[in-house]
């Protein structure tokens, strides 16, 4: 789900390998570079001999927000992908879609005042064809462990972007992480939805109705697991989920290096 945030989609012209990421404005250059590297790593596993890599780039998200956070992120993403270099490869990125900021803005009237809203809040990719289309996600589609992942985004000590889908095993993998202290989490849970939107969103007037409930889920996880390395990631184990009968199910865990 995006308001000022953006979505980037990379698709290799040769192998159709596709990478999708959600950018909130932090670690933009690092995240863009990791997306390209993931495309190259999968391409090399197919034993491709040509070092010239052609990748289609699609950028979506943001809108004309009052704080101009969206336009900054749009610019940062364009600069990040433009500057990417990978040793031993010639990277050509082809911008195919740019539905960002002013190009993703609609206007409406709320309580007598005109406000700007995003046209597209979410998008999906058809892997067989590469087609990108707007979507509204069902709550079940946010699984697995959306409260845990939201808590990491909200209060993790290491908030770098993380690739959680492992294509070889077709599993979602959540590495171990810990939180910064958040002693006021209980107080936040006592506040109204309007208060949470105002103080925890980059664009309060543009948020969908379920924004506050998602924040509450994350806060509840933080309250229930103030030390996730002890209660969730015991012995520094990552969590792995496999899709079974349409649901993401916890399968097994293994030791991993600390951090995301």
From TrEMBL:
InterPro entries in the record: NTAN1 (IPR026750)
Biological processes, Gene Ontology terms: ubiquitin-dependent protein catabolic process
GO function terms (MF aspect): protein-N-terminal asparagine amidohydrolase activity
Pfam families, alphabetized: N_Asn_amidohyd
A single GO cellular-component term on record: nucleus
PANTHER family attached to this UniProt entry: N-TERMINAL ASPARAGINE AMIDOHYDROLASE, PROTEIN N-TERMINAL ASPARAGINE AMIDOHYDROLASE
Name used for this protein in its record: Protein N-terminal asparagine amidohydrolase
Naturally occurring in which organism (per UniProt): Ciona savignyi
Origin organism lineage: Eukaryota, Metazoa, Chordata, Tunicata, Ascidiacea
